Amino acid sequence: MNFDEKFLSVTIIPAQPGFFIIYDDKDSKEVIKGEPVIAWQIETVRVKGGEKNGEIFSHTMPVVFDGTPAENWIGVQNPDNTITLPFDRELKSLEELQEYRYPKTSSAQSDLQSHVTLGAGV
Fold first, then answer.
1. What superkingdom does the record give (predicted)?
2. What is the DSSP letter of 81?
3. Residues 6+ apart with CB under 8 A from 8
4. For 45-103, what is each residue's pLDDT tens digit?
């Protein structure tokens, strides 16, 4: 969270099989299925300061074998292969997530656009 907070509790519960971390590799512009989620960490905090002062929030973080996932994790693949992006949306598949994160422009469209742009001044 982006504001000062005081931890009230942290709870770890085992994950059911079939959940996997999804990473975003911005260099290769690919979303990648990573390691399995082995547990969930539920953090409950009380906000300190600002207009939300005193409010209590809980959020859940996936836990993998090495602890928490790398900073470039963006979501979780569920056992039914849907993808959940926390605080954003749910998508039907890894392929749909790839298209959502890095939309493709077909080479035919690019070629046509180049042709139209080049021909516009003639």
1. Bacteria
2. S
3. 44, 45, 46, 56
4. 888 877 888 888 888 999 999 988 888 899 999 999 999 999 899 999 999 999 999 99
